[in-house]
Structure formats: structure tokens, C-alpha cells
Specification:
With 139 residues, the protein is mainly alpha-helical. The chain is elongated and about 70 Å long.
Length: 139
């Protein structure tokens, strides 16, 4: 596990450090690169969120996962709603009609994070083109 995490930390940590420094210095307001980096971080967070939801209650035996959370397992309900827990989105893994193994914040985050990433990219593009326009006008 450490062999997997070490390269990730060596690559991600400096990027997050530069991102946070620009945020603290106030340079982020006029930096198209900062907004594109933020979009990349938001997309990584989306992937991590999706994995969190997809692996919620990850067990080869869903009945075991439900019992581990202190919930009753309703086989009839799961059979009747097969498409709900096998779909890509929204993520659900229900033990019964009243309890979902997927945390409640996962599905809203899976919508919000990519929307914020697109907004960051759009604003970064706008900053980049606005900067070029003002430098051309100054000549």
C-alpha cells in the first residue's frame, strides 16, 4: 500500500502546496492556471467520491454489510429494486426501504464537483482570453 501511496503523494502534494500558496497570497484571482488546477483537483475529488460511494458497504455479501451497519437485510426489496443498486448513477446500495449503505452526501457531491470543475475551466478560459485582449489593447 505504501508503494502505491508514496508516488501519489510525491506528485499530488507539491501541486496542492502551490495551489494553497496561490490561494493564500491572493494570486488566484487573476490566474487562469490556478482555476485549471482547481478544476483538476475537483475532478480528482469527484473520482474519490465516486469510489467512496461505489465501495460503500463493499462486501461480497451485501447481507453481511447490512448487518455490519446494524440494519436488517431485505432480500425481497433488493430483488424488486435491482436496477437501483446496479446503476452507475445515482449510487445506491439499499439494505431495505429505509437504509442505504451509500452515504447521503455522495450523490449530491457527484453532481456539484463536476459542475464546479466546468465553471473553473470556463472562468480560467475567460481570464486567459481577457488577459490577451487587454495586452493587445495596451500596445
Amino acid at each position: 500500500m505504501a508503494l502505491v501511496l508514496l508516488p501519489i503523494l510525491l506528485v499530488i502534494a507539491p501541486g496542492v502546496w502551490r495551489w494553497a500558496r496561490a490561494l493564500a497570497d491572493g494570486r488566484w484571482r487573476h490566474s487562469a492556471a490556478w482555476f485549471s488546477g482547481t478544476a483538476a483537483l475537483l475532478l480528482m475529488a469527484t473520482g474519490i467520491t465516486y469510489l467512496t460511494g461505489a465501495l460503500a458497504g463493499a462486501s461480497l455479501d451485501p447481507e453481511e454489510a447490512c448487518h455490519a451497519d446494524g440494519q436488517t437485510y431485505d432480500e425481497t426489496y433488493r430483488r424488486a429494486h435491482l436496477d437501483a443498486y446496479t446503476s452507475w448513477f445515482p449510487l445506491h446500495d439499499r439494505c431495505n426501504a429505509g437504509y442505504d449503505l451509500v452515504p447521503g452526501w455522495v450523490n449530491p457531491a457527484l453532481v456539484t464537483l463536476p459542475v464546479l470543475a466546468v465553471a473553473c475551466v470556463a472562468y480560467g478560459v475567460w481570464l486567459g482570453t481577457a488577459g490577451r485582449r487587454t495586452s493587445r489593447q495596451g500596445r
